[in-house]
Specification:
Layout (H helix, E strand, L loop, with lengths): L24 E4 L5 E4 L11 E5 L5 E7 L5 E8 L9 E7 L5 E7 L3 E6 L3 E2 L4
Antiparallel strand pairs: 1-2, 1-9, 3-4, 4-8, 5-6, 6-7, 7-8
This protein binds zinc ion.
Length: about 120
């Protein structure tokens, strides 16, 4: 009986898959729920960040995102005092804790303007 020990097929396929999805999440500063992602950042009217002042003289710095799955919309949509011509806005709050995080702007398409101060891991 001969044991053939020469046919060892070593298939060493060390695949390195990068998993860095989580650190691209942008989260609620209060409850740490995932709100949106870095890759959902969009430029509206040429820039991602906008500084906007509302009729009661409060100034917000908002970043624009094409999606914000962690937000839910409350209240009626309105064109009144809108910051983006042609877009109606609706308040967006954190679905986790209810903190007001920004607004959803709707025209033929919609985007979210989120208050960067109220989010973590934001880059402006
Ligand atoms: Zn929250």
């Amino acid at each position: 009986m001969i044991f053939d020990m020469t046919s060892e097929n070593e298939t060493s396929s060390a695949e390195q898959t990068e998993q860095s999805a989580d650190d691209k999440s942008i989260i609620c500063k209060i409850c740490k729920a995932a709100i949106t992602r870095q890759e959902d950042r969009v430029s509206i009217q040429g820039q991602h960040c906008h500084t906007c002042t509302n009729p009661t003289d409060i100034t917000y710095t908002i970043g624009c995102f094409r999606a914000a799955p962690g937000c839910r919309q409350i209240g009626p949509a309105s064109f009144e005092h809108t910051w983006f011509q042609g877009y109606q806005w609706q308040s967006s709050v954190c679905a986790g804790c209810g903190e007001h995080l920004g607004w959803c702007f709707n025209n033929t398409e919609c985007f979210y303007g989120l208050i960067l101060d109220r989010l973590l891991s934001q880059q402006c």
